[in-house]
Amino acid sequence: MADTDVQLQPKKKGLTRRQKRKLSRGIQYTVFVAAVIAFAVAADWDRLQNQFAQADIAEQMFPDIITLALKNTVLYTLSGFAFGLVLGMVIALMRLSSVGPYRWFAGVYIEIFRGLPALLIFIFIGVAVPLAFPGTEIPGGTYGKVALALGLVAAAYMAETIRAGIQAVPKGQMEAARSLGFSPARAMVSIIIPQAFRIILPPLTNELVLLFKDSSLVLFLGVTLEERELSKYGRDLASTTANSTPILVAGLCYLLVTIPLGFVVRRMEAKAQEAVK
């Protein structure tokens, strides 16, 4: 009889896996909201507004921050990206070459310029090059120096991205091109590389975003008032006004470009995944 009573007793049921997930998410949301509220209550918003959000100072920055600083930043970025893309393509093809010295040179280049901070590259271009080659001027002035410095850094990353893209193209594409009478070089240029670029377009666009931010290092090359980019422009005006509002406005201008680019990258990645499926 006792055994029957034990069997008739309902079994105690714990939380299901789905209920545990819901409980876990609820706890996380609660902690996050509590942290945000605590930060909002603890912060001294009046002091922050006085230091970072002075409307009259922000108004003084327009339109120069757009027509001068943002324009220069975009030009520096595009010139560096263009040079880096061309050099990166050359380095990638050298890395894939059957000629040993080409592969060794490309490997050494990639390791050096991926390992060195971009700041040191800018200092090298601005200081070491004039000392090593007295009287030699880099074409394009400051724009040429920035394109060279940014391009040297970007090429090391782009080369590996391009190499991976080329190797991701099925080998049958090259074999099919050769069977149609294409030379290896022509097949690479006409068949393989276009397909590779469709694969690597999202990471290349992401590299453009990184270069846009790295353009702030141009100040180490020494620039005139007309050659200032966003960071330099914001710091100079912040020193003049003894207020940090220009730095905040400069940061918002960066976001004005990087957020849409980030959205484009995510859309391209989503389309690439749909194409694979």
TrEMBL record:
Molecular function per GO: transmembrane transporter activity
Record-linked InterPro entries: AA_ABC_transptr_permease_3TM (IPR010065), ArtM/GltK/GlnP/TcyL/YhdX-like (IPR043429), MetI-like (IPR000515), MetI-like_sf (IPR035906)
Coiled-coil zones: none
Membrane topology term: Multi-pass membrane protein
One Pfam family cited in the UniProt record for this chain: BPD_transp_1
Keywords from the named record: Amino-acid transport, Cell membrane, Membrane, Transmembrane, Transmembrane helix, Transport
Gene Ontology annotations for the cellular component aspect, listed alphabetically: ATP-binding cassette (ABC) transporter complex
Subcellular location: Cell membrane
GO biological process: amino acid transport
Domain ABC transmembrane type-1: 70-265
Transmembrane intervals: 26-43, 74-94, 115-136, 142-159, 180-201, 247-265
Highest taxon of source: Bacteria
Family stated for the protein in its record: Belongs to the binding-protein-dependent transport system permease family. HisMQ subfamily.
Protein's name according to its UniProt entry: Amino acid ABC transporter permease
Organism (species): Streptomyces cupreus
Organism lineage string: Bacteria, Bacillati, Actinomycetota, Actinomycetes, Kitasatosporales
